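--- STAGE predict ---
source: upstream dedup step, 1 unique chain passed
mode: sequence only
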Amino acid sequence: MPPPRGRREPPRYAVELPGAQLLHFALAPPGAAAAAAAAPGCFPPPPARCYSLCVPPARGGGVRAARLLRRLQQRLGEGGWAGCRVLPLLCYGPRRRPRRGFLLQDPRGAPGTGRRLAELLRAQAAPRPPLAVYEADARGALRQRLWALAAGGGRRLLRRARVVAAAAPPLHPAAAALRGGALPPSAPAARARLRQCASVIPEASAVLEILEKCPRHPEKGEFPVIVVEGLDATGKTTVTESVKDALNAVLLRSPPACISQWRTTFDNEPTLIRRTFYAAGNYILASEIAKASSQSPVIVDRYWHSTAAYAIATEINGKVEDLPPAHHEVYQWPKDLLKPDLVLLLTLSPEERIRRLQGRGLEKTKEEAELEANSLFRQKVEESYRRMVNPACQEVDASPSKEEVLKTVLKVIKKHCAL
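--- STAGE serialize ---
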């Protein structure tokens, strides 16, 4: 039975267990018949105790919330939480924007754990995350008590509800918030997010200033625009340089040179902020592509597909099957971004890619280190690339010799582009 009009359905939660398994639980609606049932599998039996927190929206929008989430993650990863397991948590529900947080399992049920969590949250600026405490009642049913924590040490009970297992929704709960969240869907959205960033990241103002000077609707010239995508060490640099020479083309890269000096700054920020930088870079790059393609063919080393694929793989936790289905809007090219004529996706086996990475001896980015350490993350990035449409990626096996790969690439270009 749906909740009465005007009353929101109680929140649901998705917790990511080891092995990337998503387990869902919910709060029983007020007035629901009580029933003693086994607690959802993410809650170990006594003497263990569990706590959770979810970061609420803050002034400055998602930027401040994203930074608070990362700060809490860092603090929970430090010493003082020995023996506790911290798991990613997502709070969601109808008419609720998903909120990220953590479920903390304390197998010993130490009384000091709850006090330290409360102290950690009280130290944050308002609106600070409330603290949820999970305990079994006299009948053995698991209940959540949600506490608002005052900076001075007081607390106020916001909610007391029974916790029940829940089925997984048809679509990952974070999918609906991707566009407009970690994946700005347009240039105005990227500009708005950069303005939010400017209050805490000075470099965002510089990026915004450059973006504001770009034409709002740049048009591609008469020559073809060819994008080369792929994970690091798949041979993008070699291919783009070789194709540039073979076609007497202009080679451009994302992020463009005019903002690449701030790349390290944004790479050290949460995904929401990092992807805003790359999205803005795509729109800045589009103006360069428009100008260059009026005089010669243009080869682009990474463009929108990279921004989208990494955002999707990061924000959609769980396994590959938890990704949004093919043809979901997150895989669509933005309507206001200059579109290329062809997108090539270079692919390699995981073993060969790691072998090439080790031979390069270059410092890894955070995401590249994640790709190497987490095969599931790599699989999600690659599958996201494959689901992109309008334009879709044309896959090219990059494992043969450089000469063979170049020959194949030129053949694909000749088939799809008027050269």
